[in-house]
Amino acid sequence: MAGLGRGAAAGVAVSGGGDSVALLDLAARAALAAGVDLRAVTLDHGLRPEAEREARLVARWARARGIPHTTLRWAGPPPAGNLQAEARAARYRLIGEWARGAGLGAVMLAHTLDDVAETFLMRLGRRAGVEGLAAMAPDFRREGMRWLRPLLGVERAELRDHLRAVGQPWIEDPSNEDTRYGRARVRRLLPALAGAGIAAADLAEVAHHIAEARAALAHHAAETAARIVTEDRGDLIIARVGFAAEPAETRRRILAAALRWISGADHPARGAEIGRFDAALCAGRAATLSGVRLAPAGDTARIGREPRAVATAVAPPGGTWDGRWRLAGPPAPAGACLRATGAAGLALCPGWRAHGLPRASQIAAPALWSAEGTLLAAPLAGRGGPAGAEPWRISASGWRLVHDDGDWRIEARGDIPI
Q1: pLDDT, the chain, mean
Q2: Could you write out the DSSP letters of every residue in 32-79?
Q3: How far apart are the first and last CA of the chain?
Q4: Alpha-carbon distance 31 to 14, whole Å?
Q5: Which H or E element spans position 197?
Q6: 378 Cβ contact partners less than 8 Å away, ≥ 6 residues apart
Q7: More confident residue, 245 or 89
Q8: Burial (0-12, 13-18, 19+ Cβ within 10 Å), 329
């Protein structure tokens, strides 16, 4: 808490369970001593009828400590896929929006040493590699926010002991005992493993060792990417000889990050799919994956957006198109929108070849279209707007690889004018 700085504002996510209620109590004490303005937030997923009452209870516990509390609600249709994964993604998205709106510097989460051990076992069962088996990071960025996990070295039982000592009740979530969920099944295994001499602390320590190895691999991959990868107006150009000379793990990390940036996907493609993409790149063959196109060109390979993947993508002039492109310039006419240039749009830009961007990249590039379907501007093809008027321009978030939460991810480093 002291590291945030006196006068800083921070959030604490509180579900009402023992771990997060203990974090609320500990954070309140630390914030008071460090001069940090603390806010609490609870997300009601709407998945259990008791959730609304539990959120009110958490609000009461926060107010008793002089901490403002906000309850967020997850609206929309019920999850159709992996319930826990979708709930987790919603939690980060909604709390991240709340934290940014409140001007908070960080949000604290109540993951514990037991969570590290359980996650390790679950991913071991999925045959995860270094990336999956490494311990979760204590400090990471997601949804444009900084997230902190200050309790990763503390066992769940210690936190319950603390709550009993201060007379603070907590809520037991029945899903924690529901063996339909993998985590609940793994949680039941921990006592038996401890009896065999493999305690949760031992598993967590192994996960932290793997995290250190992961950080070293990430550092090497970042250095390699800076040497052999260049950005060209939303595409990435890779030096094939230098790329092929790198270890498979380095190549996989670079490609996973490239795919995430260009496609806008939250997660990289599966390992086997990336392996096939990697083999094509090294052999100088064309390939597509996750809406991303690989095109060999002599000693280099160009990775860009696949035109079909953005054929129906639409965004308002003030919005972000395809996850990374934005329009700059004079106000757009009413009803105008950003869409792909497409073959029809490119045919209206006879000088596009002079700009040096391949045809497939041009077709997949953003353009400004009127409500009636008239091409107003295709900046990457050299058409900025009407002659004599202030031109429209396109800017994209920058590409860089960052070791963050033990994973490769893409962060904007500011707009790059095109």
Answers
A1: 89
A2: HHHT-EEEEEEEE-SSSTTHHHHHHHHHHHHHHTT--EEEEE--SSPP
A3: 41
A4: 16
A5: none
A6: 341, 345, 346, 348, 349, 352, 362, 365, 367, 368
A7: 245
A8: middle
Which of 103, 113, 146, 91 has its CA nearest to residue 19? 113
Closest CA to 39 of 5, 65, 6: 65
Query: Quick one: angle between helices 200-228 and 113-125, nearest 10?
Result: 70
Domains and CATH numbers, the chain: 2-204 (3.40.50.620), 233-305 (no CATH), 308-397 (no CATH)
- Residue 96 backbone dihedrals phi, psi, to 5 degrees: -60, -45
Listing DSSP states for 308-336 in one string gives GGGTT--B-TTS-BTTTEEEESSPPPTT-
Dihedral of alpha carbons 247, 250, 255, 256, sign: positive
Give the Cα separation of 297 and 176 in Å (integer): 53
What are the two backbone dihedrals, phi and then psi, of residue 256, each rounded to the nearest 5 degrees?
Answer: -60, -40
How far apart CA 255 and CA 333 sit, in angstroms, is: 39
Q: Taking the model in full, what pTM does it have?
A: 0.77
Residue holding tokens 């757009």?
A: 332
Give which of 275, 356, 366, 354 is closest to 315, Cα–Cα: 366
State the maximum Cα–Cα separation within the chain, in Å, rounded to a whole number: 79
Angle at CA of residue 316, ends 315 and 320, nearest 5°: 55
SS3 412: coil
Mean pLDDT, range 374-380, rounded to an integer: 94
Tokens representing 232 are 């060209």
| Long-range CB contacts for residues 124-132, cutoff 8 Å, separation at least 24 | 125/182, 129/271, 130/210, 130/213, 130/214, 130/217, 130/249, 131/214, 131/406, 131/407
Identity at 203, one-letter amino acid code: L
Radius of gyration of the chain, Cα coordinates, nearest whole angstrom: 25
Question: Residue 58: phi, psi to the nearest 5?
Answer: -60, -40
- Residue 360: which pLDDT band, with cuts at 50, 70 and 90? very high
User: Which string of DSSP letters, residue by residue, matches 330-374?
Assistant: SPPPTT-EEEE-HHHHHHT-TTGGGGT--HHHHHTSEEEE-TTS-
Nearest 10 degrees: Cα torsion 124, 129, 133, 138: -160
